[in-house]
Design a protein that fits this description.
mainly alpha, 0% strand, globular
Length: 389
Amino acid sequence: MKVNIKKNILFLIITTFMFIGNLMTNYTINPNDIENKWIFTFGFSIVFFYFVLSNKVRLNREKILILMLWELLIISLFFSKLLHENFQIFEFVLYSLVLPIVFFSNSIKLYKNLFLFSFVISIIPFIYLLKPESIGMGNNNLGILFSIGGIVLLVLLNIKNVDNKFVYFSIILFTTLIYFTRSRTSLLAFLIIAILHYLIIFKSDNNSYLAVIRKLITIFVTLIVIYFSFDYIYNLFFSKWSSTGADITSGRGDFWITTINNGLTMFGNGENYFLIYNVRDAHNAFIQILGDYGLISTFLFIILYIYIFVKSIRLKNLEYISFFVGFFLLSQTENLFFLNSRLIGVHLLFFMYLGCIINDTRTKENEKYSVDKKILYRSDLNWKKGHRV
């Protein structure tokens, strides 16, 4: 069997960077002690540049427009940083030049599966944090890692066209892991994507009477489990912070509303804005951009996300939908914005998928694309076998 040494080396590199990034996400390495966390992404981009260097640049009208949108977003963000004396030239070079060259290149799809597999491997060691004495204490950062990891694993399993039993097992496993982190949004985001996968598998299968009965039994057992654990689930979603008198947003709604009412400016209030509310960040990506970087940056970021959703739906690509919907849901109660963030591994996935969707030129006319039995994701149909993980 031929061993692809280059691919294996890249796998080790991606996994190492993601693992170290996840250490910062979970505060095993305190990200507050690292002033310029963007250097980590810069270092990875420089290393990864070697693997995409040999590919020709292909541009079309859509890609040029999205690249212009990205550059406008970065210029707006860093003009805000300049106004508030947070500007760093090499950070600007990273996001305006290095990152688009590396992650938005035509060849990014060749390495997509490596990114996905590396992320799943990188979160496995963190399962040890769910020790019996720590279960129930709450760990939103760990919940984010497991939620994204579970979504990524579902994507991989369907790319590899494995038996549905492994998909069901993965759903149960990651639901359990996230459940024990007591991270409400992480659990909700993963369950929405997991249910979407289950419904599509149910619809796509050639359902014999026996298969229908098995699925109905699965649903019935799930309902029984939910029934007997209802009190815990209710407390997790609605009463988690009742002892503090906070609402379902854990008190975040107060400074969200205050930011909208009193903190709106064209170029924001600076990256330390939310410290006036005695919080590290806004716990919402869009409010974070609005408060820190202003209306213009928020507007451009929303346009970027509209493009992502519209194209994902137009392509009927459940892989894109799964990741970006999950990412969007998590962004509603956690700051998943990429600037000044501790979520290094998650953002490497975000940049990779953004590059994939920008370079995806398929249409209904030039490619048959359907959701068949166990074939939920087929973005790699024309790849050479040697490029697959």
